[in-house]
Amino acid sequence: MPANCMRRLVLAGILLGISAYTAVAAQTLDIIAQKGTIRIGYISDEEPFSFKKKDGNPTGYAIDLCGKIADAVGTKVANLKRDYVETTLADGFDAVKSGQVDLLCGALTISLGRRQSVDFSQPIFVTGASALLRKDSPDYLMALFLDKRLAQVSAKPAPATSAIGVRADTTTDATLREALGPDIPKTRIATFATHQDGLAALESHKIDAYFADRALLFDLASHARTPSALAIGNRLFTHEPYGIALRQDDSAFRLLVDQTLTETYQSDAFAKLLSTYFGEEGPVLRREIMMQSIPQ
Predict the structure, then answer these.
(1) Are residues 246 and 287 in the same domain?
(2) Which of the residues 28, 118, 259, 278 has the least number of beta carbons within 10 Å of its own beta carbon?
(3) Do residues 237 and 179 touch, judged by C-beta distance below 8 A?
(4) Which of 9-13, 182-186, 257-261 has the lowest mean pLDDT?
(5) 21-37 pLDDT tens trace
(6) pLDDT exceeds 70 at position 15
(7) Predicted model pTM
(8) Closest CA to 177 of 161, 194, 190
(9) Shared domain check, 113 and 159
(10) Contact 66/108 with Cβ under 8 angstroms?
(11) Based on the number of CB atoms within 10 Å of its own CB, is 293 exposed (0-12), middle (13-18) or buried (19 or more)?
C-alpha cells in the first residue's frame, strides 16, 4: 500500500476515535449545561403519576420527583430552564435514547427489556398488575382477579367469550396473556391507546375487565361515571417497580438522580408528597419505597 494511502487511513482512524470520544464525553450534564435547559419528558395520561392540569401544565407524583432532580441540576447549572416535552409510552423511551429528553417521567416499569435501550433511576414506586371490573362482569373474571373461589361469586355459567382490555405497549400486556392459562374460558384481549379509552370500553360493556397496574386502576376508577359499579382486583400478577428513565452509560447523571431521590425520600416533605397523590395509603407506600431505596 502506498505511503500516502496509509497516512490517510491512519488519519481517518484518528478522526473516528476523536468523534467517538466526543460522543462519550458529551454526557447528560454537559449537554444540559450547553443548552441551559433540562428537557423533562412526560406521559400525559398516567394520573396520578403524570398528567395535565386544567391549564395544560404537567403535574403528578413522578413529575414532582423529576422537578426535585431539576432543582439539583440547577445547583450546578446557573439559570437552568425546564422544558416539558409531552410524549407517549411507545415513543418516550426512544426519545430518551435519541437524546430528545433528559428524563422520562410517568408510571414506567423498570424491566430488563427496557434497560437494553435506556437506564433507570432507583425505584420511585412499587405496585403490581390487576384488573378493574364491572360488578356484573363474568363470574370467572371476578374469581380470577378478586382471588375468590368461583362458588363464592355465583354459579352462573361462563359466557362463550368475553374481553379484557389492556393498554398497548405495556409490560402488563404479556403478563395478562400468561395469566389467561388453559383453564380460563375463551377470552379476547383488546388493546387501547390510553387508559381512559379502556375505562370507556369497560363502562360501555365493550370489554369485561381492564388490566393495568393497580396504582393506576384506583385513579382510573375514581374518574368513572359510576365508581360504585366497579370493583378493583386484589390479586396481583406482577411486581412492578417504577423508575425515571434516563440515558444509558452516564453514571454521573444517574448518581445525581439517585442521590436526589434518596434525599427526598428521607425528608419530611416526602410524606406530604405521597399524601397529596395517594391519600391515606401514603405511610404504607413510603415504607415500601424506603425498603427498596438506595441508602446514603
Answers:
(1) yes
(2) 259
(3) yes
(4) 9-13
(5) 334 346 999 999 999 99
(6) no
(7) 0.76
(8) 190
(9) no
(10) no
(11) middle
